Amino acid sequence: MEKKGGIVQRSDKKRDVKPTLKLDLKDVIYRLSHITYTPVKDVCPALCMMVLKDRQTIEHLSQFFKRDLLFDNTMFRGHFSNKTIEKRINVPGERVTTRFTQSDYSSIALLAFALDCTVSRATAILLEISMSQIRFVNEYVKDYLRHELSESQLREFKEILRYVNSNGESHHSWFSLLAHVVDEVGSPVNRIKEAISSFIDLNWRE
Asked: Are residues 84 and 28 in contact, defined by beta-carbon separation less than 8 angstroms?
């Protein structure tokens, strides 16, 4: 607990951030929220921090740095002559509400400072990157399933993915297969374990 102006505040109090997202980006994030049974306000921070910790992403963004940013043990030098990243979207968009821990908020604020943009814009940039590269989406889904499924269920899901990609006409990512599972089950379920168990019973067990 911390005291501020005579008011006791929780040290782990979260900070609201409301980035404006392109409509198609918002839709796919809500889709990810739906198939993982996870509120959007929790999906967004997880995606942002995954991208923010990725060296390849920081190296790419460094071309836009107006100020220095320390990443691990590397100092990426910024300069005001560097290219300016787009500070707002120029197409119809909508705000999405998300919440960050103080630590995660501070990390994004440092990136925003380096890019010379607002924290909400930096958040939108991270979300754009996360959903434009399938490796981030797949990693998010895999991490989610590791926490939600038993080892045997996860092995079965991996085996289904391997089989479908070896014998099907199209290639499925972790994201697309999970979306297919949730859509096919259709009936109301409360957890992903129920959806996957139902899908396996319907399609893969005799």
From this structure: no
